[in-house]
Write a structure and sequence with these properties.
Largest sheet: 7 strands, mixed
Radius of gyration: 16 Å
Structural class: alpha/beta
Number of domains: 1
Oligomer: single chain
Strand order of the largest sheet: 1-3-4-2-5-6-7
CATH architecture: 3-Layer(aba) Sandwich
Strand content: 15-25%
CATH topology: Rossmann fold
Length: 200
């Protein structure tokens, strides 16, 4: 897929106020500081489409971007904020949950995981929640440029093994990416394109 246009549409904290268009939506979500904004900018090849920050938890609203005037990329607040109040966490979690439970246009969620770390409980629990609610999702391992190929293979294998040995009969589709090196861009966009073709 070639991205010819990527335009910010709106930000809000209420699912009812999201775009009324019946276009397919692909949501991106992950823990704070997982590199979500950088990944979105890499995919769209727009340096500042999604705002990046050295402060984790910068994204605090549901952000819609329309891509090629055909589908929406949705940038969601992360989970596991390091520097926000408990009240703010509850607010974010409420509208994240509402988005996933109510948004009929959502066709796939991309859960971002920092490939450098051991499987984190909060990530596993969130993916379990998605599975329980029958929400299609894929895993996007980020920051692959920080590791050697053998380390990437080992970490991904360990992650998938842990998932399939716990509650998953089969691990979800996964992608390996690096925003700084452009790794995984074509794979992700082609996957989205394939889904769009199948639902059109």
């Amino acid at each position: 897929m070639k991205i010819t246009s990527a335009t910010f549409v709106m930000s809000n904290s209420q699912v009812a106020l999201c775009p009324k268009d019946r276009l397919a939506e692909y949501a991106f979500i992950g823990r704070s500081n997982v590199g979500k904004s950088s990944l979105i900018n890499m995919l769209t090849q727009r340096k500042s489409l999604a705002k990046t920050s050295g402060r984790p938890g910068k994204t605090q609203l549901i952000n819609h971007f329309i891509i090629n005037k055909k589908w929406f990329l949705v940038d969601l607040p992360g989970y596991g904020y390091a520097r926000v109040s408990k009240k703010s966490k509850k607010t974010f979690q409420k509208f994240i949950t509402s988005y996933f439970e109510e948004r009929e246009q959502l066709v796939n969620a991309f859960v971002l995981i920092d490939i450098r770390h051991e499987p984190q409980k909060i990530d596993l629990e969130f993916m379990e929640w998605l599975g329980t609610h029958q929400i299609p999702f894929s895993i996007v391992f980020t920051k692959a440029d920080k590791l050697k190929p053998i380390e990437i293979e080992t970490n991904v294998t360990n992650y998938i093994t842990q998932m399939t040995e716990s509650i998953w009969e089969e691990a979800p589709k996964h992608f390996i990416t690096s925003s700084s090196k452009g790794i995984g861009r074509d794979d992700l966009l082609n996957y989205i394109d394939e889904i769009n073709r199948n639902i059109s």
